[in-house]
Specification:
Elements (H helix, E strand, L loop, with lengths): L1 H21 L3 H4 L2 H12 L7 E7 L4 E8 L2 E8 L13 E4 L1
Antiparallel strand pairs: 1-2, 2-3, 3-4
Length: 97
Amino acid sequence: MIRTRTRHIAAVSVVIAAALTLAGCADKLVSDDRIKSQTALALDMPAASIVISDRQYDGYLTTYYNAHTSHGIYRCRISGGSLNVLGETDPPECSRR
């Protein structure tokens, strides 16, 4: 009985440690390629023509970045991407600078 309880506590500890390590890590879960492809859809242009720079993460769910295109520079934000929302993101919102 003590062994079973010890194993259960160890397993729960590992799960909690992993969850705390990864919780809210949208900046790690949302890759530049994923941001680029979603921005391409939002701006209606090919992903190959977009360069992502100045990526900043607010520490919770939103990533801010600049999207450089042949049409100009756009300041964008994309929300989501953390484990809390199973990696899902909202479409990016971009405005021309």
